Amino acid sequence: MEIWHFIVLVIVGIFVGFINVISGGGSLITLPILIFFGLDSVTANASNRIGNFAQSFAALAGFKSKGVKYDSYVYVLGFASALGAVLGTLLALEIPDKAFNKILAFVMIIVVLFTIFSPTKKVSDVLERVHTKSKIWGTIAFFFIGVYGGFIQAGTGLLIMAALALINKFTLSKVNTYKVIIVMFYLSVAMLIFIWSGKVNWPYGLSLAVGMSIGGWLTSRWSLNKGEEWIKGFMVVSVCALAIKLWFF
Prior knowledge:
Elements: H1 3-22, H2 27-36, H3 41-65, H4 73-94, H5 97-116, H6 132-151, H7 156-167, H8 172-196, H9 202-221, H10 228-247
Helix pairs in contact: 1-2, 1-9, 2-3, 2-10, 3-8, 3-9, 4-6, 4-8, 5-10, 6-7, 7-8
């Protein structure tokens, strides 16, 4: 690993930490960069999880320091996503590099469209849905989100936000707290499987972890609502450029 790779990954990690806590989709930037730095798709996918887990841990610590609370329902969703992640991660270990790159490029464009036309912005300010039926639907949804998160990670935060907003009608602050905890659940499972398989490149993964932890902590501590649209706009342009290059990589 070259020193400039470390510097780039830390700087990108800080920015991606902001994106992931505010909305999601940061892996749409980090995954292609790891691949462009020479990692095969499985190793890039595995190493990316180290940064995401560290960022989620730092963000949760930041939320807790601000007195943010959550209930036991988040653990139900977390366990459901962890079960799904087992299937998704095992699938990720088997897919060929070229196929993964094509899938990632396609997913990147889809998530960009999802970011632009995010349904979380259209959910009205109504009472939360926390009755049994909504919780059952939420649990089912998060199993499949876990499958996707275990497989590719990129854009999972956006799916989590949409599911919590549409199924349970949670507020944005509660959605962000739940998102961080759920990500830690399924990432723990995915990381263990990737580590056991020997697919993690630790220098690259830990470099991302440094930057993403800083970004996640800062964003959880200070509201960045005024800069959210600017950050999303920058992410859309960056992801489109990376997707085009990745498709022809």
